[in-house]
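sorry to bug you again but im stuck and you know this stuff better than me. what follows is a protein written twice so to speak, once as letters and once as structure tokens for the fold. id like you to explain what the token line says about the fold, in plain words if possible. anything you notice is useful, everything is just below.
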Amino acid sequence: MKKSIKNITFSDDHIIHKLPQILGCSNSDILFIDIETTGLSPRNSDIYMIGLSYCENDSWRIVQLFAENAGEEAHILRTFAKNFGNHSKIVNFNGDRFDLPFLKSKFDKHKITNPIEDADSVDLQKIIRPYQDQLGLIDCKQRTIEMYLGTTRKNKHDGKSLLPIYASYKKTMARQPLEILFLHNYEDVKGMFALLPMFLFLRLFSHL
């Protein structure tokens, strides 16, 4: 298993200071989460990366847990369960349909207690989707909404195009595919922070 921990900074942290007000809890209760998998079904696919962001000592960090092969899936799940079970608010993008059920299935498979089973989910896609037409969004993908809000990414891959890159890494253990995999997940997690201004837009719509 490989692990990466990075502090993150924000060019405009005004919305970050409003996060407890927006979500109705303290920063220490909040956990951002995004997973990378080898397919859409937990029955015949594996989780190879879990990206998380949490606040500690007033600083936001992103931690990434990476399984170098299918045999390490249980290891990254146990590491997650051991270290991140104290959050009551789970921020995600399309997590209600994908990430959270996928994780639950894998925790059950490996007989690991699910540390976020009783946490409240804040699915950003579910919140934004009803306003897609009013906002003029061509679709409700995370990258599309980020671009709408002026955020661009270095990594241009999506989950599907990462699969041969992960396969290449398992075969060669080369640095370049590993960097691509970590960057994509990092930008997925950090990108959720970029979506937070949408809460201000949606408040405007609710008062029209």
Notes: The two ends are 50 Å apart (CA to CA). DSSP finds ten helices and six strands in the chain. The beta strands are 2-7, 30-37, 47-56, 59-66, 89-92, 120-123. The CA atoms of residues 33 and 52 lie 5 Å apart.
